[in-house]
Design brief:
heterodimer; A: alpha+beta; Immunoglobulin-like; 3 domains; 3-stranded mixed sheet; elongated; B: mainly alpha; 5 helices; about 85% helix; binds copper (II) ion; transmembrane helix (chain B); membrane (chain B)
Chain lengths: ~325, ~130
């Protein structure tokens, strides 16, 4: 009942957040639910306290403004001013502190290493044998399993936050921080960098795709494979443009000559759900737009705008990248 | 006349110097406990993350600190002497009032130190991980 009310208020206040894909009011993981309940308890507790203190104030100044007996006044100060807050705050601490443990535990499931760059996410899935599958700007998780997230950053501080799935954690250069998620329903949830990290901080988002475990296994197996060679004539030409323009000095496309590490791994770019760290879709026009206007779309980005490329070259590149399934 | 007053003041001051020191003891325990908890946690978590021993140590240290603070608080409470004379303020400039006022201050500081020490220990005792 309360939950519904608060959610309703949230929906009314935040109509722009579309189906709660990036909302703490739409908890879709064990950890987000925990935080949601915690926030609810604290909020209702604060409300009760506020009404109590306000009511008392009105009572002694308006309703019954008589001089109090010494005993009553002393009792109020010692009881209401010392004992009550100490016991209440102590109770809240004892209730909330143990709850903070689970979201930080490693979990029995997989581990994913996420490194924040300016302004995108390097994502590496650790396989049981210790090897890693590299991806970027998208996190895929199996539903119903606790996946550990090992967070790090390159050069400046960022923060990792997927509101619908769990808490927030700072990402600090040279220091690993941890978070873990236990998603409870399949779906796509938006994450956002939550610590100012430079000019394009606001444009540093990503999608988290929560999948059924068997779908996830299939996806991970596909992600681990090298890139599919171009299937069409257009895409083949795109691969040539990619090589000619030197894109491979910054990007890796596994199974090709492209082994750059400066930008996101593009091996399976075509199977992702967003482009440029969550700011564009993955249709051919999106690819062309991104490649030709990178610096307009993302101020101070490390990738140059390839606005000298002909529309034909851009279309070919888009076909190549879209075909990297 | 003035000479006598000065002598009395000096005598009184000497006897009060001890309880002046006393009022700092409880906050001092709080400060040491705080620094020890944070320092030990940082060290253990940076080295091997063996939190069980750490939590036991913090638990024991907290117990000792709390017992000491309760004892100091009890001493101060008696010095304040509230129950007998019902004098909350001790606002006369007399030697007795001065003595009792210092007891009052020490008692309140012991109370706040007790709360401080308890709250500092709670995270260590309730969260069993360095993360
Ligand atoms: Cu940022």
């Amino acid at each position: 009942m309360l939950r519904t009310l608060v959610a309703l208020a949230g929906v009314l206040l935040l109509p722009a957040c579309g189906e709660g894909r990036q909302s703490v009011l739409n908890p879709s993981g064990r950890d987000a639910l925990l935080l949601y309940d915690l926030a609810l308890v604290m909020f209702v507790g604060a409300l009760v306290l506020w009404l109590l203190v306000g009511g008392l104030f009105v009572y002694v100044t308006r309703i019954n403004p008589r001089e109090m007996s010494r005993g009553l006044a002393e009792g109020l100060i010692v009881g209401g001013g010392v004992l009550f807050p100490v016991v209440l705050l102590g109770g809240l601490l004892v209730y909330s502190l143990p709850l903070m443990q689970a979201p930080r535990e490693a979990g029995e499931g997989m581990r994913v290493h996420i490194t924040a760059e300016q302004w995108w996410w390097r994502v590496e899935y650790e396989l049981p044998d210790g090897s890693r599958v590299t991806s970027a700007n998208e996190l895929r998780l199996p539903v119903g399993q606790r996946t550990g997230l090992v967070l790090n950053a390159h050069r400046v501080i960022h923060a990792f936050w997927v509101p619908a799935l769990g808490g927030k954690a700072d990402m600090i250069p040279g220091r690993e921080t941890y978070l873990s998620f236990l998603p409870e329903s399949a779906g796509t949830y938006r994450g956002q960098c939550a610590e100012f990290c430079g000019a394009s901080h606001a444009l540093m988002a990503f999608e988290t795709v929560v999948m059924e475990p068997e779908d996830f296994e299939a996806w991970l197996a596909a992600e681990a494979r090298d890139a599919t060679p171009p299937q069409t004539q257009e895409a083949t030409r795109g691969a040539q443009v990619f090589a000619r323009e030197g894109c491979g000095s910054c990007h890796t496309v596994r199974g090709t000559q492209a082994v750059g590490q400066v930008g996101p791994d593009l091996t399976h770019m075509g199977s992702r759900v967003s482009l440029g760290a969550g700011i564009l879709g993955v249709t051919p026009p999106d690819f062309a737009n991104w490649i030709a206007h990178t610096e307009t779309l993302k101020p101070e980005v490390a990738m140059p705008s390839y606005d000298h490329l002909s529309p034909d070259d851009l279309t070919a590149l888009a076909a190549y990248l879209g075909g990297l399934q | 006349m003035t000479e006598i007053t000065e002598n009395e003041d000096a005598h009184e001051f000497r006897s009060e110097a001890v309880s002046l020191w006393r009022i700092t003891f409880a906050p001092l325990i709080w400060a040491v406990h705080f620094a020890a908890c944070y320092g030990a946690t940082a060290l253990v978590c940076a080295k091997d993350g063996a939190v069980d021993g750490l939590r036991l140590g913090i638990g024991i240290g907290t117990g000792v600190a709390l017992v000491a603070i309760v004892w100091l608080g009890w001493q101060a409470w008696q010095q304040w002497d509230l129950v007998r004379d019902r004098d909350w303020e001790n606002d006369q400039g007399t030697g007795e009032d001065r003595h009792q006022f210092l007891g009052h201050a020490a008692f309140l500081l012991a109370v706040i130190s007790f709360i401080g020490v308890s709250y500092v220990a709670l995270p260590a005792l309730l969260i069993g991980t360095c993360r």
